[in-house]
Every structure is written in C-alpha cells, then in structure tokens.
Amino acid sequence: MLQTCRALCSQAGPPSRGFLPLRFDGGAFQLKHTKELTRALLVLRLCAWPPLVTHGLALQAWSQRLLGSRLSGALLRASFYGQFVAGETAEEVRDCVQQLRTLGLRPLLAVPTEEEPDSAAKTGEACYEGNLGVMLRCVDLSRSLLESLSQPSFMQLKVTALTSTRLCKELSLWVRRPGASSELSPERLAEAMDSGQSLQVSCLNAEQNQHLQASLSRLYRVAQHARARHVRLLVDAEYTSLNPALSLFVAALAVRWNSPGEGGPWVWNTYQAYLKDTFERLERDTEAAHRAGLAFGVKLVRGAYLEKERAVARLQGTEDPTQLDYEATSRSYSRCLELMLTHVARHSPMCHLMVASHNEESVRQATKWAGRLHSV
Q: Which class for 131: exposed (0-12), middle (13-18), buried (19 or more C-beta within 10 A)?
C-alpha cells in the first residue's frame, strides 16, 4: 500500500504568480462528499482516543480473530486505510493523484514500511531485498504519476525498511562517541557505495559488516534509480536511538548525489522540531553542506514518536530528548523554519526546504516569510 502526503515546498527560482495568502476553507475539501468528511471526522477523533492509540495493534488482532481476515480487512479499508492510504494498487493511487492534481496538489508517495526498534520479528536480507523491490517500484510510480511535468517528483524513504534497527543503533552509539573514528565518515561510506567493495568497520563484527555493505548497496540502488527517474528522495527521521546512523547514511548519499550542477539536492534529510537539539543540528548541517559545496534538502516536521521517546528516556533514566510541550515544539518549528527560509533565500538554488506540517499557522507563517524574503 502507498500513502500520499502534501507539503509546501520552497525551492529556487521566483514563483510564477507571486506568494499569495493561503486559504484552508476549500482545496481538497471540494472533492469530498459528506460521507467522506464524516468518516474523516470519526477517524481523526478515534486517533486522538488514548486507549485506541495504545492498544491499536491488539485490537486489530482481536478484530481478525472475531470477524475473520476478510471482514476485518474490509472494515479497516472503509475507515483508517480509506482515510490515510492513497491506494492498494497503482491504479487506485493514480486515480487519487489525478483528483488532487485538479486542485494543483502534487503527491509525495511513501511506502509505509519500517522496522520497530527491539522488534521481536525475525528479519533477514531476503526481507530487506523484498522491500528494495517495493521501493524501486515506488520510484517508478512516483515518476509516472507526474510524467507530463518537467519538475522532479518526490518520494519518502524509510531507511529501516532496507537495514536493521540493530545495525543503526550500533552505528549511532559509535557516531555519538567523542572523536569518533573517520572510518565512519560520509566520504568513506560513499566510496564503499560507489565501488561495491567490502567495508570493514571496527565497531562491528563480521556479520554486521556484511549487513552494512548489503544495506549500503540497497540505499545506493534506490538513490541511483531515483536520480535516473528524476525523483527526489526524502529520507524519513525515526527514533533518536537510530537518527545519527540515518543522518550518516543521508550524508553519504549526499556526497554522491547532491553535488553542484546536478539539479539541486536529490537526497534530503528530515528534521524533527519536537527534539531539543534540532535547531543546533540543522544549523550545523546547513553550514557543513554549504562549506562542502553540496546542495542541501530539508524536510521539516514536528515529529511522530513522542510517547515512545519519553517512555524510553524514563526507562533508561536519561534526559527526555523532546520539547517540554506543544507550545515549545511550535516555537522550535518556527525557529527552524525561519533559519531554513533564510538559507534558501541566500543560497538558492543549492538549498531547498519542504514545510511538512499539518499545522495551518506554520504553513501561513512559511508563505508569509517566504514572500517577505523574496521581496528583499
């Protein structure tokens, strides 16, 4: 199944019709019947109900036992899947996208596959290779949906669909150490991706090194195929225990695919404003990309793993990495937004930003600031 999401994207070049004030009382709602809007209201209210959020998977398993797989599946498709998933087949996704395009909305396809940290599920190379095939087909679908447009398409990528969370945790622990060895530099990983030669990292055992090499190969194949098909990859952020490794992978891909003269960044990283250190990381990474002469693409989100992050911090007796409350998260988002829009204005076309938010005020703020910077 494939998901679509919509976002405001700030790129190089002047807008064709200027920055116009946004309105949220029309748009996609014009395509919806009363029945669909009623379902959306019900589903969103259920998603805000704590018992369902906490016990959702158990309730789904109970539903399958009680109602059977077919009836339970039909119930899900008519409710949650119908609300959040663009389609189960390429044709269903295509129909959904065509509807949205009549309103000037473009898709960002996402394969909703990721590996949970400490998951008990048995996974192996065959599973990750299967996910690779799905990712490559999603790249093709992303391009075919907008074949008539000269602009690139976008696709979201979950790294833990292609590599294990155990490996990401090991690499993240190593990266966080003071004076971490240069053997894990983005340049060295990029060289291993290009050459296909075995990479031996001292903090990993033989099996982990072999898995790392296979993972790098899968990431390289997705990025290579995406570049050939004119599709930009937006690598999703996940848990804080994994993110340093994910950022390392993105940096390695950026060395290869975000060079000057390549048409802007083809591999983007995602920054979660609900983390306390996001502004400093974003500032540091933006300057590092500028010094290296690399194009830099940012997808800015609030974050999706709040409860799990806080629960892990309590369990481990460590500091909560998330912002104190919603208001603090919104202030963080605004700071990151202003920082990135300023960089877009100064370093266009080497710096791009996607404002990936469901928050109306954040989107209004983005268009207002973008218009102000554009007029300077």
A: buried
Q: For residue 278, which of 335, 230, 327 has the smallest C-alpha distance?
A: 335
Give the CB-side neighbour count of residue 218, counting CA atoms within 13 A.
25
Pairing of strands 108-110, 231-235: unpaired
Cβ pair 352, 265 in contact under 8 A = yes
What are 95's two structure tokens? 């129909």
Domains and CATH numbers, the chain: 31-84 (no CATH), 99-375 (3.20.20.220)
Helix/strand/coil for 230:
coil
For residue 237, give the DSSP letter. Answer: P
DSSP letter at 185 equals -
Residues 6+ positions from 118 with CB-CB distance below 8 Å: 165
- CB neighbourhood size of 245 (10 A): 27
The DSSP output letter for 336 is H
Residue 163 contacts residue 250 (beta carbons within 8 Å): no
Spell out the SS3 assignment of 62-130.
Answer: HHHHHHCHHHHHHHHHHCHHHHHCCECCHHHHHHHHHHHHCCCCCCEEECCCCCCCCCCCCCCHHHHHH
Residue with more model confidence, 258 or 56: 258
Question: Which stretch of 30-39, 135-144, 331-340 has the lowest confidence by average pLDDT?
Answer: 30-39
Distance CA 352, CA 343 (A): 9
Query: Is it the case that residue 332 has pLDDT exceeding 90?
Result: yes
How many Å apart are CA 60 and CA 327, to the nearest integer? Answer: 33
Residue 90: pLDDT over 70: yes
C-alpha to C-alpha distances, 294 to 256, 267, 270, 298, nearest whole angstrom: 10, 11, 17, 13
Structure tokens at 368: 């207002």
Question: Is the N-terminal amide bond of 14 cis, ω within 30° of 0?
Answer: no
Measured between alpha carbons, how far apart are the two ends of the chain, in Å?
44
